[in-house]
Structure formats: structure tokens, C-alpha cells
């Protein structure tokens, strides 16, 4: 096995990620000569990222050398992200299938909708995670039409709203009741899933928003306090944005880009 890995790394140029899958029972860790294997790999490609499935405990106070660089939960998105024994955030990637199988399955038509995929992606990023989305083939080894249609819709949403995903991570702000936040520097992205009634409330952001716009088309939005806002108990810290119409501009995920004052970061 070691010789095959060395040949792969040497002959096929730089590789960003080495994915081991998987260790189980007593077939884990040093059963694979894991320390020797990882040292050999990193001697050839020092910047390689390795998953946590070679063995060991990436969440321990002092993880094994082969414990990996990121956690890889499968078919589940962690409720609160991933932290280690010291309370530090651990990079992670949720491994999710577009239907219920990793490979070909003739009777599996249980495809996730574009809304499910997009909102799952946003949820991962909002918790400092990444989404790995698996797409299995049909009997001819081709991507099924159902998958292509779903991915096309996801791609169109990403074309308009990708800035709220690429390079973004979690915000220090608590999860809002209407959706989720992602953040990149002084750009805070509000992912609005639920229109609700009246203006959208941004807790803790009063006086901290320099500009606001709909990310999908750049339309400017006003940050203003409605006349009934004094009814809110924490009005001294909150900001409001009103969207026109009874429906959200994008029912899957309407993204509002908020440019924050430097003092708000």
C-alpha cells in the first residue's frame, strides 16, 4: 500500500486532499502503519490535507500524528459544528449523498431537492464546515437526468449568491430565527429562509451596518427603524430591513449582504 501511495504522489503531481476510507474494529491506526504512512506522504507533499479516517482521535487534547486534519461526519450535519476536547473548532466536512446511495442503485429515486442541497450547504458553512455532495451514476455510468436538473438549479443559485459561500465561515452572531448567517471579513451574509411578517430583524446590529443589498442582483436595501419598533425589548441594539412584497425574492434562500462597520467585527 505504501508503495502505491508514494507512486501516486510522485507521478501525478500535487494532490490537495488524501482521503482514507475507512478504519474499523481492529483495522485502524498502526494496523496500517499509520505514523510511517503519514510521514512518508507529508515528506512528498507537505501541504496535503488528510481526513480523519486513518484512525486515531482528531478530537483529543493531543491527537495522534495520523489523526488527520479534518473531521468527516457522514449523512449528518453536526448540530453545533465540531469542537475538540479543548473547545477549539475543528475543520470538518459533511459527506452527503444526493439520493440514498453512494453508487449505482436502480430503484433509488429519493433525490434531495435543490432547496435541501442549498440550505444544507449554507448550514455547513454557517458552522465552519464544508459540504461534500456525492452524485452516483446510472447503469451506463452516466450522471442521471434527475441529478443534472438538481445540480443545475444549485449552480444557478451559486452563480448569483456564491460570494456568501466561498471563503466564508461562521459568524459570532447567534443563529437568527429567520435563517442563518455566513461571514467573510466585514461582509455578513444573511440567508433568509422565512419571510415572516413585517421587517427582518437583525439582533445586535443597530448602527453597525454601512450598506445592505440583495446579493443576487445588487439591489440596495434600506436599513431603517419602523415606527412600531419601540415595542421590541432590545430595540437599542437591533436593526431592521424591509423587503418589498409578500414573498421572498428567492424562496429557497434570499441572501442579503451586509457591509459592517470595522468596529462591528
Automatic annotation (TrEMBL):
Top EC group: hydrolase
Domain called Glycoside hydrolase family 29 N-terminal: residue spans: 1-163
Enzyme Commission code: 3.2.1.51
Family annotation (InterPro entries): GH (IPR017853), Glyco_hydro_29 (IPR000933), Glyco_hydro_29_N (IPR057739), Glyco_hydro_b (IPR013780)
Signal peptide annotation: none
Keywords, sorted A to Z: Glycosidase, Hydrolase, Signal
Family per record: Belongs to the glycosyl hydrolase 29 family.
Protein name in the entry: alpha-L-fucosidase
Amino acid at each position: 500500500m505504501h508503495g502505491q501511495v508514494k507512486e501516486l504522489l510522485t507521478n501525478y503531481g500535487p494532490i490537495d486532499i488524501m482521503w482514507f476510507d475507512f478504519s474499523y474494529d481492529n483495522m485502524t491506526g498502526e494496523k496500517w502503519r499509520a505514523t510511517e504512512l503519514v510521514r512518508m506522504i507529508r515528506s512528498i507533499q507537505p501541504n496535503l490535507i488528510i481526513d480523519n479516517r486513518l484512525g486515531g482521535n482528531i478530537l483529543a487534547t493531543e491527537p495522534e500524528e495520523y489523526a488527520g486534519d479534518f473531521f468527516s461526519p457522514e449523512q449528518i450535519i453536526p448540530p453545533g459544528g465540531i469542537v475538540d476536547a479543548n473547545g477549539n473548532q475543528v475543520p470538518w466536512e459533511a459527506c452527503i449523498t444526493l439520493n440514498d446511495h453512494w453508487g449505482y442503485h436502480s430503484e433509488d429515486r429519493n433525490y434531495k431537492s435543490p432547496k435541501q442541497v442549498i440550505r444544507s450547504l449554507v448550514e455547513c458553512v454557517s458552522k465552519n464546515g464544508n459540504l461534500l455532495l456525492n452524485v452516483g451514476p446510472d447503469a451506463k455510468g452516466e450522471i442521471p437526468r434527475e441529478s443534472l436538473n438538481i445540480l443545475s438549479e444549485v449552480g444557478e443559485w451559486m452563480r448569483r449568491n456564491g460570494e456568501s459561500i466561498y471563503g466564508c465561515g461562521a459568524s459570532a452572531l447567534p443563529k437568527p430565527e429567520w435563517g442563518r448567517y455566513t461571514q467573510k471579513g466585514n461582509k455578513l451574509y444573511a440567508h433568509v429562509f422565512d419571510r415572516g411578517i413585517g421587517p427582518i430583524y437583525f439582533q445586535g446590529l443597530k448602527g453597525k451596518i454601512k450598506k445592505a443589498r440583495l446579493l443576487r442582483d445588487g439591489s440596495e436595501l434600506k436599513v431603517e427603524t419602523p415606527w412600531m419598533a419601540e415595542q421590541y425589548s432590545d430595540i437599542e441594539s437591533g436593526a431592521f430591513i424591509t423587503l418589498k412584497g409578500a414573498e421572498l425574492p428567492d424562496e429557497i434562500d434570499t441572501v442579503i449582504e451586509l457591509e459592517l462597520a470595522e468596529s462591528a467585527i
